[in-house]
Write a structure and sequence with these properties.
The structure holds two protein chains of two kinds. By secondary structure, chain A is α/β, with parallel strands linked by helices. Chain A contains six helices and 13 strands. Chain A is globular and about 50 Å long. Mean pLDDT of chain A is about 90; it is low at about 1-15 and about 30-35. Chain B has a single domain (about 25-115), classed as Immunoglobulin-like (Sandwich). Helices cover about 20% and strands about 45% of the residues of chain B. Chain B has a four-stranded mixed beta sheet with strand order 2-1-4-7, with no helix packed on it. In chain B, strand 1 (about 25-35) and strand 2 form a beta hairpin. Chain B is globular. The chains are: A alpha/beta, B alpha/beta. The interface between A and B is medium-sized, with 19 and 18 residues.
């Protein structure tokens, strides 16, 4: 497991989460100019899900919003890496879910919130409803010297970025310097995490190839409903917990069925993540509710 | 006696050739897809026996992906998609839909069992 020798676990006051310190920007020289900030990653909230894997599904998102609002140091921004809503064939219900989701997260104290689609939001209508509520499915923005790139690998139901988006990515990267700090946000893993469970992006290798010349790149994604860390060369990929149900570790069982709800430990395996960005990154997994 | 043996040998040789020919002929396996299942969802083959998967869809575009054999194709309603496959290793191999098709998509899978 990459990074194992760099793990640095510590307790955070009032939170059950642990911190994962990693060389986020391996090409970055210590002491180089860095405007430190942090952001929070929400992922796979699946608003509208109903099932045994989370009997508290109607309240989990609201609880997580309250927890993040209660952080002693508020993040600069918040990102949602897809599957905001649970899929439905009914286009009207899809929009109702997106509307209600947007209402709930509007309670976040931090107002700089960036959304991304997951396949549950966008694959059945190629992102049509998603765009009505949340805007573009792929975009860039800059924050305190860090270039963020949001990639859409779900609006194509075959889980492709597509040649057009890859050309857009290449054009954006041409404007970057080799040691610029770049954070990529996406829903599905860009690498082949577990092909037998379809935990891949069909043309994700092309995106990684485009990113490879840049020294300071890290990817944050969702989809697999669990914390996971992986390196492709010098590029780190960090998957986030879900806020609806946990999935098994890649390849640990025959099927990728949700893990059973544990009534004795509600919220087990769920949560959000705080990411502190400087020359290094510190990931702190946050529980749904403060302990 | 000699003649009988020769006839038997010739007959045996012909049968062997026929058997080899049969073994070389691809066996068709038909699999239909619909939300959110394949039918059948378990198919069995012999190692070394060439196959042709004949894939059809009853409702919408689905995907068919079997990473262990490097296979993937779309399954389009109204047409047969024929995929040659040489099962050259024994074991159980998962196939699944890789074109998101709704709530239940994640459960749309099946198994190819290759017997040694």
């Amino acid at each position: 497991m990459p990074h194992a020798d760099r793990r640095d676990f510590l307790k955070l006051a009032g939170l059950a989460g642990v911190a994962f310190t990693a060389g986020l920007f391996p090409g970055r020289q210590a002491g180089a100019q860095a405007s430190d900030f942090h952001f929070v990653q929400f992922s796979d909230t699946h608003w509208g899900y109903s099932g045994a894997a989370n009997p508290d599904a109607e309240h989990t998102l609201e609880k997580a919003v309250a927890t993040v609002n209660g952080l002693p140091k508020q993040p600069d921004l918040i990102v949602f890496t897809g599957d905001l809503t649970h899929t439905t064939d009914d286009a009207k219900v899809r929009r109702e879910r997106m509307k209600r989701f947007r209402e709930i997260v509007s309670a976040l104290s931090v107002k700089d919130v960036r959304f991304m689609p997951g396949e549950h939001d966008a694959s059945l209508d190629r992102g049509e409803a998603y765009k009505e509520f949340f805007g573009a499915t792929h975009y860039t923005f800059d924050h305190k010297g860090v270039h963020f790139i949001a990639l859409d690998n779900v609006s194509d139901p075959a889980a492709k970025l597509g040649d057009e988006q890859l050309a857009w990515l290449a054009a954006d990267l041409k404007q970057r310097k080799p040691d610029d700090r770049i954070i990529v946000l996406t829903h599905r893993p860009l690498f082949d995490l577990q092909p037998q469970w379809d935990w891949t992006t069909a043309d994700g290798a092309k995106a990684i190839e485009l990113l490879m010349p840049y020294k300071n790149v890290v990817v944050f994604y969702g989809h697999i409903h669990q914390e996971h860390h992986h390196m492709t060369g010098h590029i780190a990929h960090h998957a986030a917990n879900s806020l609806i149900f946990a999935l098994p570790a890649p390849g640990s069982q025959p099927k990728r069925a949700p893990l059973a709800y544990d009534a004795a430990m509600p919220g087990k395996g769920l949560g959000t993540r705080d990411v502190a960005v400087a020359d290094k990154v510190t990931l702190v997994e946050l529980p749904v509710t403060k302990s | 006696m000699y003649r009988r043996t020769l006839v038997a040998l010739l007959a045996g040789s012909a049968l062997g050739a026929a058997a080899r020919l049969a073994a070389d002929q691809p066996v068709e396996i038909r699999i239909s897809a619909k939300k959110f299942e394949f039918h059948p969802n378990k198919v069995t083959a012999r190692r070394g026996q060439p196959l042709v998967l004949v894939l059809t869809s009853e409702d919408r575009i689905h995907g068919f992906k079997m990473p262990d054999f490097g296979l993937r194709t779309d399954i389009v309603p109204g047409q047969e998609t024929r995929v040659p496959l040489m099962p050259d290793k024994p074991g159980s191999f998962t196939f699944f839909c890789d074109v998101f098709c709704g709530d239940g998509h994640e459960d749309m899978d099946g198994t190819l069992v290759v017997e040694a």
